[in-house]
Amino acid sequence: MMRRLPSLLCLLALLTSGVVFAQAIDPLPFKDRAEEVRFQKLTRELRCLVCQNENLADSNADLARDLRHEVFDQMQAGKSDDQIKQYLVDRYSDFVLYDPPVKAGTLLLWFGPLAILLAGAGVVVFTIRKRGRTETPIDSATNDQGEDW
Amino acid sequence: MRRMIPFFAFVLLAGLLGFGIWWNTQHDQREVPSPLINKPAPAFVLPKLDEPSRTVSRDSMLGKPYLINVFGSWCIACGEEHPVLMSEGKNIGVPLVGYNYKDAPENAKAWLAQHGNPYDLIIADEEGRTAIDFGVYGAPESFLVDAKGVIRYKHIGPLTSDVIAKELKPAIAALAKEQP
Fold first, then answer.
1. Which ipTM did the prediction report?
2. Ramachandran region of residue B63, left (φ > 0), alpha (ψ -120 to 50) or beta?
3. Does residue A48 fall inside a structural domain?
4. How far apart are CA B136 and CA B101, in angstroms?
5. At residue B171, does pLDDT exceed 60?
6. Does the CB of A70 have a partner CB in chain B at under 8 Å?
7. How far apart are CA A105 and CA A107, in angstroms?
8. Which residues of A touch B102 (CB under 8 A)?
9. Given CB atoms, is A67 within the 8 Å cutoff of chain B?
């Protein structure tokens, strides 16, 4: 048992340090669990502007911390999620949203993949129909196809 | 001709890839377009760096265009920009307002004493709260504010001689033309 003690202590230190660290990043005084969940969800949908592939919830950047506090303060002031998002969009543009709104500038982003999928499906349908027409009456067409590709 | 189709498809994809590479070298991918362009600057009230008891506000600055330059002694890119402001800051034709961002006043003063002070006026935002209203997300950033207090141009990143000549000076010249 004594031989195991150091490793157990290490394990304990590792486990607790994670907890302490996580709290030290952002000790925000949430009044209940629901509020914290709402805060976490909201900051996960917002992009950090300094390290642009991180969301506000995860980022360690100074500005991200400031913005988290801003979000928290506005939640305390009774603002809705949409109002808080709008506050940030007014200052940092749609770029802060991980879920960009559908509008003229984002049509390609939203529907581009669908358009490409439909175009691909169109080509497939067109090809199958054309083959269906040419291949059934003439047997030798199969040879042609093999050579072609 | 049919057997050339894969080749054409390849050329098309290669062209698209080439365009993507070219496009990404042409602009700064980190740059976030500011929604504040052509909108009134946020109503700030900030203390002066050298005289914290006196404040400067947007309304007290009305009447004359000026350039706000966000900087901090901790900011490496600001150090790169600094010599350009020292040599060209006086020649741009509008007052240069330093915006000391999230900086301890004594650090800012020491930094300016060491590298020189290109600013006509310096305001201090130690907390960085007002900077959020300006949509600042990294220093250095520069905002050109016109006589009516409207933001007319923003540059993100260090001002260079090239940017000043090609973007900033034309923007300032356009402002001068508007004034009766």
1. 0.80
2. left
3. yes
4. 9
5. yes
6. yes
7. 6
8. 62
9. yes
